[in-house]
Each structure stands twice: as C-alpha cells, then as structure tokens.
TrEMBL record:
<dbReference type="Pfam" id="PF00550">
    <property type="entry name" value="PP-binding"/>
</dbReference>
<dbReference type="InterPro" id="IPR009081">
    <property type="entry name" value="PP-bd_ACP"/>
</dbReference>
<feature type="domain" description="Carrier">
    <location>
        <begin position="11"/>
        <end position="94"/>
    </location>
</feature>
<dbReference type="InterPro" id="IPR036736">
    <property type="entry name" value="ACP-like_sf"/>
</dbReference>
<protein>
    <submittedName>
        <fullName>Acyl carrier protein</fullName>
    </submittedName>
</protein>
Amino acid sequence: MGVEQILDMDTIKQTIKQKLLIDRLKLEDITAEEITDDLILFGEGLGLDSVEAFEVMVGMEELYGVMVEQIPADELKIHLKNVQSIAELIMASQQKGTEGL
C-alpha cells in the first residue's frame, strides 16, 4: 500500500483538501479551492470534530501509509492543525520511509 514515488508538497495539499477532507468527510458546503493551507481544521475555522479527526488519520494511513499511533496526542494535535501541517507530516513520513533505499 506504500507510495512508490515521493509526491511534491502541492500535490499532497491538493489531495488532502479533496480526498481527505471533502470526499472522505462528505463536506458539501465548501470546495478545495476555499480551503486555504493555513485554515484551522478543528474547532474554529473549518469546524471539524474528533470523529472527523479520526477519519482524517485513517485516510492518511490509507492514502499515504502514515501511521499516527506512535505520535503523542499533543503532538498529533499540532500535526492535524491545518492542511500545511498535515502535508508536512506526510512529507516527513515519506522521507523517513525512503532513507533506507
């Protein structure tokens, strides 16, 4: 299920917006273009809740192989703050996964 090639940051951000947020969470009142990279996703901002946070984490694992179980909750909250922080987590995970190649 791993990603063979390293994707660029813009592609990852677009995928997060469309597939992780809009499609997976069935958001109907917003488009990918309306979600800025720094829009707060949970609580204020987009207004997502903890159930939707879990869905985002499952989606990150399915799409990118990013496992979040070992990340402490307070750190994970920072990683899930906005599209930019999720993309950075995915990029860091991909780079870590290719270091042994």
